[in-house]
Amino acid sequence: MNPQAEELNKIIQSKNPVVFDLLSEKGKKIFFPKKGILGQTADAKGTKINATIGAAIEDNGTPMRLESIASNVNLDPSVIFPYAPSFGRPDIRAKWKSMIYAKNPSLAGQELSLPVVTNALTHGVSMAGYMFVDDGDKVIVPDLFWGNYNLILTHAYNAQLDKYKLFKGNGLDLDAFEAKMNEGEIGKKILILNFPNNPTGYSPTEDEANAISGIIKASAEKGNKIAVFCDDAYFGLVYEEGIEPESIFTKVSNIHENVLAVKIDGPTKEDYVWGFRVGFMTYGIKNGTEDVYTALASKTAGAVRGNISNAANVSQSLLLNAFENAAYDEQKQEKYNILTDRYKEVKEVLQDDKYAECFTALPFNSGYFMCVQLAEGLNGEKIRQILIEKYSIGLINLNNVLRIAFSAVAANDVKELFDGIYNACKDSKE
Fold first, then answer.
1. Residues 246 and 113 in one domain
2. 115-139: buried (b, 16+ CB within 10 Å) or exposed (e) per residue?
3. With 90 as the cut, is the pLDDT of residue 45 above it?
4. Could you please report the per-residue DSSP string of 333-398?
5. Of 73, 294, 295, 303, which cross-links 11 as Cys (Cβ 3.0–4.6 Å)?
6. Are the C-beta atoms of residues 311 and 84 closer than 8 Å to each other?
7. pLDDT given at position 408
């Protein structure tokens, strides 16, 4: 094992052996290289003639660039063209951390790691897998989950997705979750909490969020060491009173010394920048220390460097400018209001009793999506094809559960959408 990895491991072992035990074999071996090319490049910073880094420089010392590209971005070339650090830009890391606290007031007074920048949330989940998932590990997920977990965790890291029933009636099936957390021998457990949930668009009520936390805490008290991946892709998009407004990360990042919470989030959905590909990984654990968090961040940045080198500088810079823009909050509220109106229209349209003959809405209250469960005997794939060919409507079929992205449907098209699904169901019986 590389001595730099051993040094990080010693820090983690001495300060928090639970965190060390949760690391995968890859996580234990990875490190961010402070020596070699990166170390020598850092040493040369500020020199008059710097021939270290693999980038081209104009004679005046600015980044070499094509005007046909530079003219399209109204930012200083120094924050567009050079490599960003593998950790991410220091300024946006600090800004995002401050925003986590602002958006989650109950974290006040709790120390968290400085976020590490990933290439959006898919890459963040992959890096969490790199850090904590070993070959054959089980990862606890609900039976309705983002399909990309399969590619990331099952096929890339050879994990097993261990499913429990998400819903009971109009809310979460907390009994199923508790039973799953109590399965098997005492030891290492990994789970993903994704709220608002993709594909269902459901977030827990405040009581449900507290119950989830209590179940995890009880499992930890029995001696289980638990890594909780908090996939917060749709954070903040909650449309009902009584729904937990803060990240589930706030409930699990300080509940027990045996629970390490990994917040995987970013502006992709929150700030409507799907193509920017910027995400963040932040760690929280009860009695977490700066030494442990710094070591985890170094390992995470090492995994990022060994995987993609670094996330795009231009995206990070554009986002930082937006976050510091005086109009940012107002503009974000305007978009939230549009999504809220679409959500309310979906709720209103679904009051029509005729739809019950063909489908039933699964619980939803947040995010971009909602789902309908088709009535018994209907074929979701057949209906999906009819919708495209006859009604010019596109949606996703998930084993006879239809996922509808109401985020992409104008409020005045919602009635046509659900009438189309109803009529396609009727057509499919002919």
1. yes
2. bbbbbbbbbbbbbbbbbbbbeebbb
3. no
4. HHHHHHHHHHHHHHHHHTT-GGGGGTEEEPP--BSSEEEEEEPTT--HHHHHHHHHHHH----EEE
5. 295
6. yes
7. 97
Q: Tokens 């940045």 belong to which residue? A: 301
Helix (H), strand (E), coil (C) string for 69-82: HHCCCCCCHHHCCC
Element (H, E) at 319: helix 313-323
Determine which helix (DSSP H) or strand (DSSP E) holds 131, and give its type and residue range. helix 120-132
Task: With H, G, I as helix, E, B as strand and everything else as coil, classify residue 196.
Answer: coil
Q: Which CATH number fits the domain that encloses residue 312?
A: 3.40.640.10
State the CB neighbour count (10 A cutoff) for residue 193: 25
- Same domain? For 159 and 278 the reply is yes
Rg of the chain in Å (alpha carbons): 23
| pTM more than 0.85 | yes
Q: Kindly state whether residue 261 falls inside one of the protein's structural domains.
A: yes
pLDDT exceeds cutoff 80 at 20:
yes
What pLDDT is attached to residue 52? 81
Q: Verify that 306 and 170 share a domain, yes or no.
A: yes
At 226-272, the pLDDT tens digits run 999 999 999 999 999 999 999 999 999 999 999 999 999 999 999 99
Q: What is the pLDDT of residues 62-113, one digit of tens each?
A: 999 999 999 999 999 999 999 999 999 999 999 999 999 999 999 999 999 9
Write down which residue in 277, 305, 323 finishes a domain.
323
Average pLDDT (338-360) is 97
Tell me how many domains the chain contains.
2
Amino acid at residue number 106: S
- If asked whether residues 346 and 312 sit together in one domain, one would say no
Q: What angle do CA 390, 391, 394 make, to 5 degrees?
A: 110
Structural domain of residue 356, as residue ranges?
Answer: 329-428
Containing 21, the helix (H) or strand (E) segment is helix 17-22
Question: Which among 323, 349, 382 is the end of a domain?
Answer: 323
